Amino acid sequence: MKLDWDHIKIFLAVARSGQILAAATTLRLDHATVSRRLNALEEQLQARLFERSPVGCVLTPAGEQLLPMAERVEADVLSIEAAVADSNLELSGTVKIGAADGFGTYFLAPMMGEMIRAHPALNLKLLPLPKDFSVSKREVDIAVTLQPPTDGRLICQRLIDYQLNLFVSDNYAKRDETLNELSDLRDHIVVTPILEFTYPTMDFFHEIAKQAQTTYECASVAAQLEAVLAGVGVGILPNYMAWRLPTLRLVLPHICYSRTYWLVSHPDGRDVARVATARRRIFDTVRAHREIFSTAIREPT
């Protein structure tokens, strides 16, 4: 039996996304093509691989049996691509990098430009990292996350510890009011993420919100920063975002939270030159700028 690699790719995409339409979007194919090729694979194998319904596709026992074998085939194909890439000086292809909101926007986005300039045939995709992302399902090649994955097969490396402090801007009307303890926030607005959606590792936001007069909850770190800069209230921000903004002032300097970023990738990526190079670039760049992850700005005078 001769299986078509394109059909295997489609099977993997549907298995990982749980939907034919989502798989079609990922593969840049139309819905009908994905469905037709999946039918062809099932017919060739004489087995139903998915239970299909209007809400999605669930692997059958036959599909579950095929999945690890298909992933091994995929790994072999990636190794072939890597061997060819290593024979050339120029890196090419696509690397998808998922990153926690603040890190991706305020550190990684400007820093990865050097890699693009060095390898213009390389296509980097920087994606926001939702809580339910999956490196295992190849939704991204590399991830920078706030907590290590539970899947022990993945390669996980401690990237950097970073600090968060409370800040106000020069535009804040109550900027000169003395803040000595968290309880003093009862007279202030505190800018936070959407509290019910915060990562478990960011539980301190709930503690701070309880002390505030009221909270202004913003879905992204970028929105939180803009709100603090505009003078809406007191915000808890990573120091690597705040240190270079002269209009921000550190308040309650003894209240400091330390958290960790983790660098995660699939083991198959070790043999793919573009993925291995991107991972190494992220790690080296962070370590070269390690001081900004723990450096706070000046207190108000």
Mean pLDDT: 85
Q: Quaternary status of these chains?
A: single chain
- Strand/helix succession: HHHEEHEHHEEEEHEHEHEEH
Radius of gyration: 23 Å
Poorly predicted ranges (pLDDT <50, ≥5 residues)?
A: none
* Helix amount: 25-40%
Beginning-to-end CA distance, first to last residue = 77 Å
Gross geometry: elongated
> What is the class of the largest domain in the CATH system?
Alpha Beta
* Structure annotation, total helices: 10
Write the CATH fold name of the largest domain: D-Maltodextrin-Binding Protein, domain 2
Described by strand count, sense and barrel closure, the largest sheet is: 9 strands, mixed
Structural class: alpha/beta
Number of separate domains:
2
Count all strands and give the number. Answer: 11
Approximate strand percentage: 15-25%
